[in-house]
Amino acid sequence: MAGSVNKVILIGNVGADPEIRRTQDGRPIANLRIATSESWRDRNSGERREKTEWHTVVVFNEGLCKVVEQYVKKGAKLYIEGALQTRKWQDQTGNDRYSTEIVLQGFNSTLTMLDGRGEGGGDRRGGSDFGSSGGGGPSYDDYGSQPSSSSSPSSSRGGSGSGSFSRDMDDDIPF
Amino acid sequence: MAGSVNKVILIGNVGADPEIRRTQDGRPIANLRIATSESWRDRNSGERREKTEWHTVVVFNEGLCKVVEQYVKKGAKLYIEGALQTRKWQDQTGNDRYSTEIVLQGFNSTLTMLDGRGEGGGDRRGGSDFGSSGGGGPSYDDYGSQPSSSSSPSSSRGGSGSGSFSRDMDDDIPF
Amino acid sequence: MAGSVNKVILIGNVGADPEIRRTQDGRPIANLRIATSESWRDRNSGERREKTEWHTVVVFNEGLCKVVEQYVKKGAKLYIEGALQTRKWQDQTGNDRYSTEIVLQGFNSTLTMLDGRGEGGGDRRGGSDFGSSGGGGPSYDDYGSQPSSSSSPSSSRGGSGSGSFSRDMDDDIPF
Amino acid sequence: MAGSVNKVILIGNVGADPEIRRTQDGRPIANLRIATSESWRDRNSGERREKTEWHTVVVFNEGLCKVVEQYVKKGAKLYIEGALQTRKWQDQTGNDRYSTEIVLQGFNSTLTMLDGRGEGGGDRRGGSDFGSSGGGGPSYDDYGSQPSSSSSPSSSRGGSGSGSFSRDMDDDIPF
DNA sequence: TTTT
DNA sequence: TTTT
Q1: Which residue, B151, D142, D30, B104, is CA-closest to A154?
Q2: Which stretches does UniProt call biased (Low complexity) (chains A, B, C, D) (predicted)?
């Protein structure tokens, strides 16, 4: 479909230490639970009320997974930009079930830490020098699948490397 | 939780004519199915592939519901801004099930038609004068539950009266 | 124009204590300078580089202005959602000049504090009952110019009374 | 700064055919003027009013520039995602002047055509197979600085190629 | 002028 | 200068 946009922006706190799994060919996948909440004053009682919403975030990007692995802990406040995806699966009785997740994969996915936690631990990017639009803190823009060749015009763009921090859209990652 | 954001932005097409229900006290609720899709060229086969994602959108806002009722038809292209909400329910066997929906309710919810359809049908807002940030087309910003008392602090905020919700725009505020 | 969107989302730090002015009829206007920055590793030197961008934010909404006045100080980290506006003015030599600002006014404007500062200072909303979608912290959704007439179609939209602008949230709407 | 976000989202119409320039080393830069507008009913007069805002968009990304060059014409409706940037320059009298633009460069930049125009002209991406999150229409996600080397781990990611559609952040492009 |  |  021409002209389609599917974007989720969350700022919230991580409910538990992230789980990192690996695909058979070794790529990491991180799962996060993020809480957002809104509060308001009840019109009748006048008392403050709060409602929390829990979101499941799945990170397919290698670079972002590294950030998650090294820095994201229970309680961390994150900025997340990803896309909605509803996954179909079967429960034990064989019935179709659907789960909607926020997927960080490929373009226009971002994960940025909004509190100081996890910082100062050296270069979280290991030997590579990923670009980062999020500043000095653990932040990572998943800009797809950047090759690492330095001979390309733009691979010379500092960061580069990064190479692989986005899994392929058409890969069949079991999850 | 201080500092929380829960925002979904979609541009996609409506899969079927919307359903409008009513609550017991008469407020409308509209349900929409919206498709977004991405396409890419497969690295191996070289052929173009496309993946469509279907989203369930629930509109609680009366003004937005009117726009939906009058203008949104199967095939319409919409811009939607809302929030994620996961609703728990029980299936016929009593098992817990969860459905994630994009809710348009309260502030920061928007629905704008991006194609010409549905326009020109007179003032869809009837006698009311809702504001619209989306221009001349059927567009509606769901600004939630506006104070009904004229003594409320914010109703004093110029504009007031929905018709003028951009009221400041034509004021000559010196700054 | 049908189907128009003009939205800016910033997360950044406030460069100086905000200035609050008042219009002749007493409405407050707050001005903020917000810095965002991106950093990356230089491709040649390998050293980390950083570029800071400064944004001028103008808050026309009374409720948001109160939040700014009471809580936002130099250094605060904010989430801002507003619209771009370019203002024309004349310099002392009479030449046309243009300034582009992020305006928080009307719907779909939000200001949320992302650090703990400013919290715990009692109810910043005083006697007023603004809604807040941002949780317990100083947060405010600028929903513009709410209808002051209780006969308006949208004031009938449940919630009403700003205090409860998420009113539907605690309603038990069957769907 | 850790945890910074600078994002602009526009849906609007192009005011004039785009201008494409080239840097000394041959990379294209496209300039667009985009109009967004909001309309509302005046509270006093009851008549409909409209205000148009004009935005300057600068596209540094090669892939996006190609899309602009081939498909974007005066009147086209676009979805744009970029970042704010204020550029300092000197007028003829040597006075400092500032211009704020929406820059499409690097991560998290997107340009998608929302009307049918320009479509059907074959594969606008030439021999390359860029990834695209925007569907079958002329759409392009600027995911940073992708190298063109096919030996890179991720260049195998379908689309890839694309190579160079983002100029470097620290390049000194005169404009 | 912020922040890391 | 767009669009409705």
Answers
A1: D142
A2: 139-157
d(CA A147, CA A143): 11
The answer to whether C82 contacts chain D (CB < 8 Å) is no
Domain ranges of chain C: 8-113
CB contact under 8 A, C1 and D13: yes
Q: Which residue of D has its CA nearest to B127?
A: D46
Q: Give the Cα separation of C91 and C75 in Å (integer).
A: 30
Closest CA to D21 of D174, D154, D129, D166: D174
CA distance D18 to D64: 12
Q: Which among C8, C50, C54 has the least Cβ separation from residue D86?
A: C54
Q: B39 and D132: CB-CB below 8 Å?
A: yes
- Give the three-class secondary structure for D18: coil
Residues D22-45 have a mean pLDDT of 92
Q: What is the pLDDT of residue D32?
A: 97
> CA-to-CA distance for C92 and C78, rounded, in angstroms?
34
Closest chain A residue by Cα to residue B78 = A4
End-to-end CA gap in chain B: 34
Neighbours of chain C (3+ CB pairs under 8 A): A, B, D
Rg over CA atoms, chain C: 19
What are the CA-CA distances from residue A37 to residues A54, C124, C154, D98 (Å)? 9, 19, 25, 39
Nearest to D153 by CA among A152, A103, A162, B49: A162
Q: Which of A6-10, A42-46, C65-69, D80-84 has the lowest mean pLDDT?
A: A42-46
Interatomic CA–C1' length for residue C127 and nucleotide E3, angstroms: 34
The CATH code of the domain at A8-113 is 2.40.50.140
Q: Are B135 and D79 in contact (CB < 8 Å)?
A: no
Percentage above 90 pLDDT, chain B: 56
Q: DSSP assignment, residue B119?
A: T
| pTM score, whole prediction | 0.77
In angstroms, rounded to a whole number, what is the distance separating the alpha carbons of residues D83 and D57? 10
8 A C-beta contact, residue C37 and residue D155: no
Ramachandran category for residue D53: left, alpha or beta (phi over 0 → left; psi -120 to 50 → alpha): beta
